[in-house]
Design goal:
Elements (H helix, E strand, L loop, with lengths): L2 H13 L12 E7 L8 E8 L5 H6 L2 E6 L2 E5 L2 E5 L2 E6 L7 E3 L2 E2 L1 E6 L2 E6 L3 H10 L11 H15 L4 E3 L9 E9 L11 H20 L4 H18 L9 H9 L5 E4 L28 H9 L3 E6 L6 H15 L5 E4 L8 H8 L3 E2 L18 E2 L7 E2 L4 E2 H5 L8 H18 L2 E5 L12 H11 L5 E3 L2 H12 L2 E4 L5 E5 L10 E10 L2 E9 L5 E4 L1
Parallel strand pairs: 1-2, 2-10, 12-13, 12-20, 12-21, 13-14, 14-15, 15-16, 16-18, 19-20
Antiparallel strand pairs: 3-6, 4-5, 4-7, 7-8, 9-10, 11-24, 17-18, 22-23, 23-26, 24-25
């Protein structure tokens, strides 16, 4: 196996948390996964051979292949997912196929000696590496591609009669994790006197609101709220009535006890440098953490997490340290999470953020899409880092509703979000929602949609609502689980530390195939206090 493939395999099997090791010659295995087709010195009941190039397995089977260059969509059962690299289409006659690209077969099955071969015509770990390093374009945002790669592998094991255990990405008692997060780009309209922010508010709260009302894009009640806010502006500036941009108070009222995460800008008036080297003055904000210390302390006292909305941390570790220090001097913690303002990110951002000392990042999302930039909603380790974790961003209000972005109607946005929630119920992982500070207030008034979205996520009490930090901590605990096993007896033992703090335990799923497309499934709580042993 290529060393790069081995590193990617390590991360892949943290996402598909099941026992594995690098194959040892002359040791008998139930299944061996190969990415180069070199299996002659290995012994297994099933050889699962991935790869886009011709292998000794293909030559022995007399199967011809034609290479295609991705991206190419593959169809599997009711699902479709993209392959971004090369693809092999097999001339396998009338043999049964699981994967297809159009009318072409992308897999086949054969026998080798006393074992079986299931050949799949793409480079699995190159695909995973691409997704975790480069990510998907926004047109593929709705596709949880890595989760479908895992689901396909799970399907192959079950179809082939291979028993296995796994730790699903679901806390005990829940289907998935939900993090309610908020990027705070503004703090109070009083800070904006005769600037573009105030001018924009006046324009949108007046004429644009009227136009939206006429076109049926805004109900009368919302229009009235905007006009009342507009007329109250003089009183707000005179401090005779409360400021109506109050993110901490607004979200505390709407979220009803759920502990959310606020990403706060460390320095005001600092736009930072864009990835193309330019400076956009519109990126600078009009508040900084030191000015809202009291409000931050009150929010933390209600259980909210405070994190950094970074400016230049994505490109400069020294800047990152300074940005984080602004927060830790208030919270008293040694580290913090970060999400970059305007979602700026670059290839070397992971190691720069890790060098700055951040605990996790939550930038991986879309300004113009909803879904899965990395092809997964699971927390993963960012490439080229020792342990910096990424909590992927799933749903962002401005991506959905800004006219220059997706420009969704309320109904279409609901369908987009419902699909993300449905995938979370199917695959586990996280749903990370980013609703900005002004989104509950005039003139955006996206509060009703947000309430309905939270209600949909919380349906059946099967979502664990928690802070971004605790979601990352749960996945770190899951990654700490270690397996030992006996290849001859099939006895698997899982060991782990107890989950830290009030973080829930996990589950161990035991899959024992009983026939084609059928399996006896068991699930047991696994809290790590004692080892768990299973005989397969």
């Amino acid at each position: 196996m290529d060393p790069a493939d081995l590193q990617t395999a390590e991360e892949f099997f943290e996402l598909f948390k099941t026992p594995w090791e690098r194959a040892v010659p002359k040791r008998k295995y139930r299944v061996v996964l190969s990415t180069n087709g070199c299996i002659e010195n290995l012994e297994a009941d099933l050889f699962l051979v991935y790869g886009s190039g011709e292998t000794a397995v293909d030559r022995a089977a007399g199967i011809r292949l034609d290479q295609r260059q991705g991206p190419v969509d593959l169809a599997w059962e009711e699902s479709t997912f993209p392959v971004y690299g090369r693809l092999a289409a097999f001339d396998a006659g009338t043999a049964a196929h699981t994967l297809r690209s159009g009318q072409e077969a992308v897999d086949y099955r054969d026998r080798v000696g006393t074992g079986r071969v299931w050949r799949i015509g793409y480079d699995l770990f190159e695909e995973i590496r691409h997704l975790l390093t480069n990510g998907q374009p926004s047109r593929q945002a709705p596709t949880p591609t890595i989760e479908l790669h895992i689901a396909l592998l799970r399907h192959v094991l079950l179809e082939s009669g291979v028993p296995f255990v796994e730790i699903p990405p679901r806390p005990d008692g829940y289907d998935f994790i939900c993090c309610l997060t908020h990027d705070v780009d503004f703090f109070g309209i009083r800070r904006h006197k005769f600037d573009r922010t105030l001018a924009g508010f006046v324009g949108r709260a007046s004429l644009k609101t009227l136009a939206d009302l006429v076109r049926g894009r805004r109900p009368l009640g919302q229009a009235a709220r905007n006009w009342v806010a507009l007329l109250s502006l003089p009183l707000v500036f005179l401090k005779l009535v409360p400021d109506f941009w109050r993110p901490f108070d607004d979200y505390a009222r709407v979220e009803e006890g759920s502990r959310s995460t606020f990403f706060l800008v460390p320095f005001k008036g600092l736009p930072g440098i864009a990835p193309d080297g330019t400076v956009d003055s519109a990126r600078a904000v009009s508040y900084e953490m030191s000015e809202i210390r009291e409000e931050m302390t009150q929010a933390a006292g209600r259980g909210s997490e405070l994190a950094v909305h970074g400016i230049d941390a994505w490109r400069d570790s020294d800047a990152g340290r300074a940005e984080m220090k602004q927060l830790t001097s208030i919270t008293g913690r040694e580290t913090a999470g970060v999400r970059m303002h305007w979602l700026y990110f670059a290839a070397d951002s992971p190691r720069r953020l890790e060098a700055a000392g951040f605990d996790y990042d939550s930038t991986w999302g879309y300004n113009d899409g909803v879904g899965y930039r990395a092809g997964t909603s699971q927390v993963f380790r960012l490439p080229e880092t020792a342990g910096l974790m990424e909590l992927p961003l799933s749903i962002m209000d401005s991506a959905l509703f800004y006219r220059s972005r997706m420009n969704r109607s309320q109904a279409d946005a609901r369908r987009d979000c419902d699909q993300v929630v449905a995938n979370a119920r199917r695959f586990g992982g996280t749903v990370v929602i980013n609703w900005h500070d002004r989104s509950m207030a005039p003139e955006r008034l996206w509060d009703r949609f947000y309430r309905e979205l939270i209600a949909e996520v919380g349906k059946g009490d099967r979502a664990w609502f928690t802070t971004a930090r605790e979601a990352v901590d749960w996945f770190r605990w899951r990654r700490a689980i270690r397996f030992t096993w006996e290849t001859t007896s099939g006895v698997v033992t899982a060991v782990a530390p107890a989950p830290p703090g009030k973080i829930p335990a996990g589950r161990m799923r035991i899959c024992r195939p009983t026939g084609t497309s059928a399996a006896a499934l068991e699930e047991h709580r696994f809290g790590g206090q004692e080892p768990m042993t299973v005989e397969l």
